[in-house]
Amino acid sequence: MKSLLPVSLLIVFSVFASDHPVPDAARQAPQPSQPLSVRAFQLEATDPDGARALYEKGCAAGEAAACAGQALFLEKSGQKEEALKQHNKACRLGDGYACYQMAQAAAPADRGRLWKQSCHGGVAYSCFLWGADLMDKAQDAEAAFKKGCAMTDVHSCNGLGVVAQQKKQLDKAKEIFEKVCAKRADLGCNNLGLVELQLGNKERAVALLEKTCREKIDYHACNSLGVVAKQSGDLKVAEQMYRLACENGVPSGCRNLQKTASR
Fold first, then answer.
1. How many CB atoms lie within 10 A of CB 232?
2. Distance of CA 90 to CAs 112, 158, 263, Å?
3. How far apart are CA 85 and CA 105, in angstroms?
4. Do the beta carbons of residue 41 and residue 51 sit within 8 Å?
5. Could you tell me if 90 and 101 are in contact, meaning their C-beta atoms sit under 8 angstroms apart?
6. Could you give all domains of the chain from N- to C-terminal order, each with its CATH number?
7. Which pTM value belongs to this model?
8. What CA–CA distances, in Å, run from 112 to 23, 87, 126, 127, 152?
9. What are the contacts of 23-26 at 24+ separation with CB within 8 A?
10. Which of 2, 41, 105, 165 has the least CB density, counted as fewest CB within 10 Å?
11. Is there a contact between 45 and 52 (Cβ–Cβ < 8 Å)?
C-alpha cells in the first residue's frame, strides 16, 4: 500500500528530550574497578584536598574514571575551564560520560564525533544523539540506534523503528514501535499508528492515534488524525485536530492548520 503520510511526520523524537536525565548522572562515583577514583570520591566530603590529590594521581596514571571524577570535583568547586580539560582527557581515555559532557560544550559540528565516542563508552542516550546527528546529515544511523537500543535506551529503539520505516521495512518497524509504545507511549504510539496506516490497518491505526491524542499522551497523534481526516475529505475534523496539535506545541500541526484554514 502506498504510504499515506510523509516520512517526516514519523520522526517525532526530540534530540534533546527534556525529560531525559543526564546520562550516567547517578554514576558520579567512578567505577569500582578504579580504586584511586573510588577512594577519592569517598573523601570528597571529609577531605577535599586528599580527594583532589587522589584524582590527580589516578588521572596522571591514565585512569579515565579518575580524570572524569576530577572533572566533576572541579565543576563542584566552580572551576569550569579546568573541569572541561579533565573531561577532555577522560574522554580521550574512553570515559563515555566525559565524552557526553564534552559534546554538551562543543560546537555543533563536533558533537557527532563526541556522541559516537560517548556511545562506545557505554552511555546509551549518546547513541541516540549520535544516530539523530547522522540522520540530520542523511547518513545511515541504524548502527548507532541499534547499539543504544541494545543498552535499553528507548529513544534509540524509537530511532531504530524510524530507520526501518524509511527503508520500507514496515513489519520490522511495527514490531519495534509496538515495544516502544508499550514502554513510552509518548514516543512510540503515534509512530505505531502511522506504520499501521502504511500497512493498510486503518481501523487499528485510527484507534491508536485517537487514544494517544485523547489522553494527551502525544499531540503529534492529533496532527496525524488531522492528516487522516483531511485525506478522508473531512476538513472540519482535520482543522480541529491540527488546531489541537498546534496549540500544544506541534509545529507541523500549525503548518497544516494554516494550509487548511487558507483554503
1. 12
2. 18, 30, 58
3. 11
4. yes
5. no
6. 25-105 (1.25.40), 181-263 (1.25.40.10)
7. 0.80
8. 16, 17, 9, 10, 21
9. 23/96, 23/97, 23/100, 23/118, 23/123, 23/124, 23/125, 23/126, 24/96, 24/97, 24/100, 24/123
10. 2
11. no
Cell output for 243 = 488546531
Crossing angle between the packed helical segments 220-231 and 202-214, to the nearest 10 degrees: 140
**CA-based nearest residue to 205, from 217, 197, 213, 214:** 197
Average of per-residue pLDDT across 232-259: 95
Q: Which residue has the cell 536525565?
A: 21
The C-alpha cell that represents 83 in the structure block: 573541569
| Helix (H) / strand (E) containing 136 | helix 124-136
Single-letter code of the amino acid located at 46: T
Number of residues assigned to the chain: 263
**19: three-class secondary structure by DSSP:** coil
Alpha-carbon torsion angle 248, 249, 255, 260, nearest 10? 0
Which stretches of the chain are assigned E, i.e. beta strand? none
